[in-house]
Every structure is written in structure tokens, then in C-alpha cells.
Specification:
This protein has one domain: Nucleoside Triphosphate Pyrophosphohydrolase. The chain is 22% helix and 36% strand. It contains 3 helices and 9 strands. The N and C termini lie far apart (55 Å).
């Protein structure tokens, strides 16, 4: 049984309240999810392909991440999820922002790495493939290839930055 901390809409942990994965989250409460966008020192971004048995199976994600376990801070959760899903260790994380939904608070992180590109380790039941893509390849991906509206928002920002760089 996976236990989560409960948060209010202002991202304050609510002492004495435990949420359980798979059970409904009461109105007004949120659980924490952390995602990590990984960029290699050469500028490429890491994409992970979701296991076919999972929701959105077979689609690519530009982040590794998941729900924070009870007692985990956002950086602890991000580091754990990144390691579980990719085998990569995040030395430094930079928070990119937070996205609030009805019952979830998403904390988005960025990690730059100098790892060997072939050192990514897949997590059985979670991921089934990976690839490194350039920024241009990432921004050209369609919404039916790359999941999550949050990630589509990030890609939109990259598209806007690319347009600003044009002469």
C-alpha cells in the first residue's frame, strides 16, 4: 500500500492526513507528483517510452517522475523517481515550476547530466525504451506522440524560445 502526504491548495502539508494510492482524494486535498526533465550536456533531451501496459502506453514522455511517498520532499521524490525510471542520479535539480490540478500538485524539475547516453536503465513495467533527441526534434513532436498537457506547455515554451532566436 503506497501512502502519500496530503497538501492544501497552497502547497502546505496537512499533518495527520494520509492519502492512499488508488483511493479517492477528498475534495480540497492534493497529492504531490514530481517530474524531471533531463538534458544531456550536449543539449539533447531524454525521452522515455511508457510501458504498453500503462495508461498512455507506447507514448513518449520528456520526463521521469511520479507520486511522492509519505515524508518525501519534492527534490527527494524527483531524485528517487529519476533513478527508478532511468538509473540516472541527479546531483543538481532546478525547479521549473508548479502546476495545480483538481487533486494533484505537480512540481517540475530540470536536471542536466554528463552521463554516458547508453547508461539509461529501464524500469520494468514503467518504461520500455528511451532515446535522446535534440531540442528541434523535441519541439517538432506531435501531441499524439508526447504525452501530458504539462509537457506540451513546456514544448510550447521551447518553440517560442526557438522563434525568438531566429534572425
Amino acid at each position: 500500500m503506497e501512502k502519500w502526504d496530503a497538501y492544501d491548495k497552497n502547497f502546505r502539508k496537512i499533518d495527520g492526513v494520509t492519502l492512499i494510492r488508488g483511493e479517492p482524494i477528498p475534495a480540497g486535498l492534493h497529492h504531490l507528483v514530481c517530474d524531471v526533465l533531463v538534458q544531456h550536456e550536449d543539449g539533447d533531451y531524454l525521452l522515455m517510452k511508457r510501458d504498453p501496459c500503462k495508461h498512455f502506453g507506447g507514448m513518449w514522455e520528456a520526463t521521469a517522475g511520479g507520486s511522492a511517498l509519505m515524508g518525501e520532499t519534492p527534490p527527494d521524490c524527483a531524485r528517487r523517481e529519476l533513478f527508478e525510471e532511468t538509473g540516472l542520479c541527479a546531483v543538481e535539480l532546478r525547479e521549473l515550476g508548479r502546476v495545480y490540478s483538481t487533486d494533484t500538485i505537480y512540481v517540475e524539475f530540470f536536471c542536466r547530466t554528463d552521463c554516458r547516453k547508453d547508461s539509461v536503465v529501464l524500469q520494468e513495467g514503467e518504461t520500455c525504451d528511451y532515446r535522446w533527441v535534440s531540442r528541434d526534434e523535441l519541439v517538432r513532436m506531435r501531441s499524439d506522440e508526447l504525452i501530458t498537457k504539462r509537457m506540451q506547455g513546456f514544448i510550447s515554451e521551447l518553440r517560442a524560445e526557438r522563434a525568438d532566436e531566429r534572425p
